[in-house]
Amino acid sequence: MLQVENTLFTLVMLLYFAAMALYFAFIAVKKDGVARVAVGLQAAGLLLHTAALVCRGVGAGRLPLTNQYEFATSFAWGLCLVSLAFVIRFRFPVLGAFASPVTFLIIGYAAMQSKEVKNLMPALRSNWLGFHVSTAIIAYGAFGVSFVLGVIFLLRDRMRARGFMDQHIPGREKLDVIAYRSVSLGLLFLTFTIITGAIWAERAWGSYWSWDPKETWSLVTWIIYSAYLHLRIRRGWQGRAAAIFAVIGFVCVVFTYIGVNTLLPGVHSYA
Amino acid sequence: MRGGVASPHRFKRIYKFIGSMRFAIILLVALALACSIGSLVTQGQTYDWYAQRYSERAAALIVALRLDDAFHSAWFIIITAFLCLNLTLCNLTRLPRLIGRTRAEGRPEGALESAGDVSREGVADPKAAFTRLRMPGPVACKTADGREALFASKHRAGLWGAWVCHLGILLLILGFGLGQMTQAQYTVYGVPGDEKPIGDTGYTLKIEDFAVERRDDDSVAQYTAQISVSGDDARRDAEISVNNPARLFGMKFYQNSVGWATRVNVLENGKPLQSAVICAGEFLPVEDKPELVVYLNAFYPDYAMVPGVGPSSASEKLNNPAWLYSVYYQGQLLGMNALMAGEELTIDAYTVTFTDPQNYTLIQIKRDRFTWLALAGGLITMLGLLLAFYIQPAKIWAIREPDGRWTLRGACKKGGAIFKEQFDRACGLGNEE
Ligand code: HEM
Fold it and tell me: Which residue has a Cα nearest atom 43 of ligand 1?
């Protein structure tokens, strides 16, 4: 099973790379047909990626969500899923062009991690952990999309001169609404992640919140995005300022995910 | 006199500010900064530790500002308290308006006279557009000047999203805070057969059995303890393992960790004097000479001397057991050494041996009467977010013009540009039919 996963994983990387290249080609040659192929490749990559994760789950006999490699590949999967959904839902292939390098970067990071399947220490054997990490993947994927949207928003004014971009990037107002949709999706799932994590911690350690650095940073991320929501409601802050917050929020997400494990001590350092 | 007039005014302004969204944003940013400081500065160290790690100056600052215990410091609690006050005021002042709006949004009166966010004239079949916009059966009504009209509204519950979310956060903070202030925590450790008091609760905990379940590769799969708790003339039994605590007598029992215990046998002039089980880190005073004390520093089931690391255990299997001990006389350290299996230690007339190494279990006992409140707060917050994000209040109305066609209008604040697109599509299709 793990052998199969390995092969699939390589294929997934190739497909994601091809999708990214075609998205770039779409921007270069400005043909809608190219964008359609790129979306198709991304969808095929996502399908195989799902299969790879299932293989690993079956091979390891548990949810594939417990070490740095598994979480990185799942994170890439989440970002690919959410970005694909947004590309299709809002007919927005330019989003795909900006999201695919981020997805590729994360799966590249996954490829550099150890793929060894390790046995779980007893505290990690919990259904709540499954909920906790799967909701985190969707949340992180959605925040990844809001980050990309924030970047597009901030770059939009520069790209204005070109008619093609004008046609393929929604107006400021719509872009803002799409970004709002992705942040709200992310925040909803992050809230779920934090609650299920607290329930799990309560069962495993007897304390549902202990200011462990990873907990603290997920709270910081949560606070940043709720500040984003309130800023957005205030007149004049919609758009640019909100976009900057969406970018800062994702920096916190990445720090929570990678920085905390490597730079700060805590219970989560094994994950 | 002037002061007397100005101050209620000023008071009102301060009151308004404290309940405002601007203040909320300031507090949220302050809280985010406070939390990041608390995680970046290592918590709970001494002045000397900080001085060595950073500098004397930084250490002085850290201690003065209580950055060494940021999450329990006065300033952290003050920010949180202001956030609660802010949320309470905001929710209280908005409640009457919210109720009023919820009623108004369900009635056509206000809407029919307004321009709406979107509109389309000359629609032939408004009912089809209502259906396409997934609006429930529109009700027939009349405008103020007597024209025929249709009206439908949906998802008014969404208006309550932010309010419910704010309420949830308040309850969450309240539950957490009350829990922190009133919770009690105890630990009991021992080997099967031990019976010990649980702190000052009046209950006793007996460890009936304890097992470590291992996989083929020697890694631990689960720690399981059978316990019984007595008190109040009652006795209850439970099995606890990691991730599966038990609730008995209002307290929660957790299988927290394990360590090694061993039997210590003391002989005096070759005759058995004393035999007791102690855990690593415990003392045993010699029975008829209590100023002589044996201390078990550590136990290594598979002893190995690793260069650069010192004594350690190669595995958790009892391949090469070693006991690291110290001996004290009248409080003075006489010596420290390691004994291998079968070796003995002689001090004057006494001979000490270590036998029967076994795992002891450490059980954590916790009482927090407010966990449910925090959990309820969390769930209510989730519900609020769901309402705020996914239940978008919308209303559509159509007014019949003199030419028999209809003017369709709609409003959906949350939908923004996307609602406009949906509306245009629905109207376009409604027209073609
Ligand atoms: C941890 C703190 C907070 C969180 C997580 C939070 C969350 C939210 C959410 C999710 C919304 C809905 C936003 C939307 O629908 O786009 C909202 C709206 C709002 N919040 Fe907060 N909030 C917090 C604190 C506060 C505080 C302290 C105030 C005090 C005034 C406040 C005032 C408001 C207002 C006025 C709205 C707009 C409601 C509306 O448009 O219907 N929030 N908040």
Answer: B162
